[in-house]
UniProtKB/TrEMBL annotation:
Ranges of residues in domain Formamidopyrimidine-DNA glycosylase catalytic: 2-131
Swiss-Prot/TrEMBL keywords: DNA damage, DNA repair, DNA-binding, Glycosidase, Hydrolase, Lyase, Multifunctional enzyme
Transmembrane segments: none
EC number, as in UniProt: 3.2.2.23, 4.2.99.18
Entry keyword annotation includes Acetylation: no
PANTHER family: FORMAMIDOPYRIMIDINE-DNA GLYCOSYLASE
Organism: Jeotgalicoccus aerolatus
Family (UniProt): Belongs to the FPG family.
UniProt-listed Pfam families: Fapy_DNA_glyco, H2TH
InterPro entries: FPG_cat, FPG_Glyclase, FPG_N, H2TH_FPG, Ribosomal_uS13-like_H2TH
Molecular functions (GO terms): class I DNA-(apurinic or apyrimidinic site) endonuclease activity; oxidized purine nucleobase lesion DNA N-glycosylase activity
Oligomeric and partner information: Monomer.
SUPFAM superfamilies assigned: Glucocorticoid receptor-like (DNA-binding domain), N-terminal domain of MutM-like DNA repair proteins, S13-like H2TH domain
Protein name: Formamidopyrimidine-DNA glycosylase
Length: 287
């Protein structure tokens, strides 16, 4: 699943579509079938109103909050937003021709095609279809944004991180589950949680209340360090993540513990399921 660095890189790579107008929207049969079965596959709005709202609007800005992208779109009469989550395997492509998408799997699983006024297409593909897309006039109306902690780059992020972890809600939780909660810090998923906990020498299973302020502060540092390193390496490509140009990131070659057998010091790693996700850790390096 793409985490903050991967979504940030997608946002940056989508910059060429800013100031272009969406002239047409086509939705896949998977979406139509899902909606007919009452499942609201990918597009969470009513399909006809989604198409009506989006068509004819200019993409004025693309932003990111946590693992969500949002497109500010407007015409003379209305300004609104498309909020987009890549789920497990969502990917965007900007192409002149649909056949320019090189990988068969992404080509086969296209879900939304936005035609742009320069003749290019912005294609959203999603193999496993856990992604989501919906429109919101105000981003304040979208509950996950209302609850989300400041971005790690925000000056109040560290204070918010420490204060929130000291609240009752998180005291008894394993620290790994806590840092994967967007109310604590946005955008940490399974990979960067395991990596940052290793670098901070903290066991992922340890309860938050049993970790000192100093160590939690250190953990915050390691999370930002891992994010920055991943951004500089083009993100992690585990299975389905692709950049907008179809490229793969290199961060997976820098993993210390995620999907590894041994830690960098040569100790055998343990794995354990925390909050339904498998985690990797070293019982020698992490306490
Ligand atoms: Zn170790």
């Amino acid at each position: 699943m793409p985490e903050l660095p991967e979504v940030e890189l997608v946002k940056q790579e989508l910059a060429p579509v800013v100031n272009l107008t969406i002239t047409d929207v086509v939705l896949s049969n998977y979406i139509y079938k899902g909606h007919a079965a009452g499942k609201r596959t990918i597009v969470k709005d009513d399909l006809k109103s989604f198409i009506d709202i989006v068509t004819g609007k200019m993409i004025a800005h693309i932003g990111r909050r946590g693992k969500y992208l949002y497109f500010l779109i407007s015409d003379e009469f209305q300004t609104t937003h498309i909020v987009s989550h890549l789920g497990m395997s969502g990917a965007y492509f900007i192409v002149s021709d649909f056949d320019d998408i090189k990988e068969a799997n992404f080509k086969k699983h296209w879900q939304v095609i936005f035609t742009l006024n320069n003749g290019q297409k912005l294609v959203y593909s999603d193999i496993r279809r856990f992604g989501e897309m919906h429109t919101h006039d105000s981003l304040h109306d979208f509950p996950p944004f209302a609850r989300m902690a400041p971005e790690y780059t925000d000056e109040f992020s560290r204070t918010h991180f420490l204060q929130t972890l000291r609240s009752k809600k998180f005291a008894e939780k394993p620290v790994k589950a806590a840092i994967m909660d967007g109310e604590v810090i946005p955008g940490v998923g399974n990979i960067y949680a395991a990596e940052s906990l290793y670098l901070a020498h903290i066991l992922p299973t340890k309860k938050v209340k049993n970790i000192s302020d100093k160590r939690l502060s250190e953990l915050f540092e390691r999370i930002t360090e891992v994010f920055e390193l991943s951004l500089s390496r083009g993100g992690s490509t585990i299975s389905d993540y692709r950049s907008v140009t179809g490229g793969k990131g290199e961060m997976q070659h820098s993993f210390k513990v995620y999907q590894q057998d041994k830690c960098p010091l040569g100790h055998e790693l343990k794995t354990k399921v925390i909050n339904t996700r498998n985690t990797f850790y070293c019982t020698t390096c992490q306490r």
